[in-house]
Automatic annotation (TrEMBL):
EC number: 7.1.1.9
SUPFAM superfamilies named in the record: Cytochrome c oxidase subunit III-like (SSF81452)
CDD domains recorded: Cyt_c_Oxidase_III
UniProt main location, coarse: membrane
Family note: Belongs to the cytochrome c oxidase subunit 3 family.
Heme-copper oxidase subunit III family profile domain segment(s): 1-285
Name this polypeptide is given: cytochrome-c oxidase
Subcellular localization, as worded in the UniProt entry: Cell membrane; Membrane
PANTHER family: CYTOCHROME C OXIDASE SUBUNIT 3, CYTOCHROME C OXIDASE SUBUNIT III
Transmembrane segments: 12-33, 39-57, 78-101, 149-169, 181-201, 221-246, 266-284
Species per Swiss-Prot/TrEMBL record: Billgrantia endophytica
One cellular-component annotation, GO: plasma membrane
GO terms of molecular function: cytochrome-c oxidase activity
Topology relative to the membrane: Multi-pass membrane protein
Length: 285
């Protein structure tokens, strides 16, 4: 379709996706606030997954039918670029909250800075991070924190390695070496699954032995918000890579036309960079 621009027919997927996502968020809010609404949350989650699968299947079909041209490719690239930028801002907000608490709020409660008068609220409080003993005695802090040199370091090595294996797979695809691409991409998927399992083990240890929970003061809240949202992104990224692996096996991509694969690489590398920030500022410093 040289010289033309493909305009898809009116799509129902944006509306259905919004309804599914809204249902999931309502259920999640009910679970967090009222400790009920799990069924609504799961229905919304399943609906989101179904909409994504059916919507992406339609896009793949359009691409395989030869309906897309260079202009459409640029549209996809701009769309993915803005999506990743929105994800950067999403995590920047949570990192900003962490830095604000650590650099300002906790020192103020300890009597430091221009707002140090807030120390009058809890005069016995000593400012320190990680905050194992919150100033309000009604809030129980964690018993201890994770050493960054055990499971967190292992997960860091896994994700960094996965970026390398994915890059090898991408370069192999661009050179037309489909079998090499398939093998290295399968290795990337395996590393992603290993990360998810280890993160699950860490969460179990956090609740069962370390006393790190969502109710364990500001440290527990920031720990689970940052690592939890990142974990969700790793799960989504791993599912995307599995889909890309299936498409590689089915010979959907060529060395010249494979933006679906390339976009998944962008997303995965972004997730890896976020984890490096988490490792440094949540676990190490």
């Amino acid at each position: 379709m040289s010289g033309s621009y493909y305009v898809p027919a009116t799509s129902k997927w944006p509306v259905l996706g919004s309804l599914a996502l809204g249902t999931m968020m309502i259920g999640t809010g009910m679970v967090l606030v009222h400790e009920r609404g799990t069924v609504i949350m799961l229905i919304g989650l399943l609906a989101v997954i179904a909409v994504m699968a059916l919507w992406f299947r339609e896009v793949v079909h359009e691409s395989r039918s030869g309906l897309y041209d260079a202009q459409m490719d640029r549209s996809f690239r701009w769309g993915m670029g803005w999506f990743i930028f929105s994800e950067v801002m999403f995590f920047a907000a949570f990192f900003g909250a962490l830095f604000y608490v650590r650099m300002f709020a906790v020192p103020w409660l300890g009597g430091e800075g221009t707002k140090g008068a807030t120390a009058l609220l809890w005069p016995e409080f000593t400012a320190h991070w990680p905050l194992l003993s919150p100033p309000d005695s009604s809030v129980s802090g964690p018993a201890q924190v994770f050493s960054p040199w055990h499971l967190p370091l292992v997960n860091t090595l896994i994700l960094v390695s996965s970026s390398i294996t994915l890059t090898v797979a991408h370069e192999a695809l661009k050179e037309g070496h489909r079998k090499i691409c398939r093998n290295w991409l399968a290795g990337t998927v395996l590393l992603g699954l290993c990360f998810i399992v280890i993160q699950g083990v860490e969460y179990y240890e956090a609740y069962a032995h370390y006393g790190i929970t969502l109710e364990a003061g500001i440290y527990g809240a920031t720990f689970f918000i940052l690592t939890g949202f990142h974990g969700v992104h790793v799960i989504v990224g791993t599912l995307i890579l599995i889909v890309m692996l299936v498409r590689v096996v089915r010979m959907h991509f060529s060395p010249q036309e494979h933006f679906g694969f390339e976009a998944s690489c962008w997303y995965w590398h972004f997730v890896d960079v976020v984890w490096v920030g988490l490792f440094l500022f949540v676990y190490v410093f």
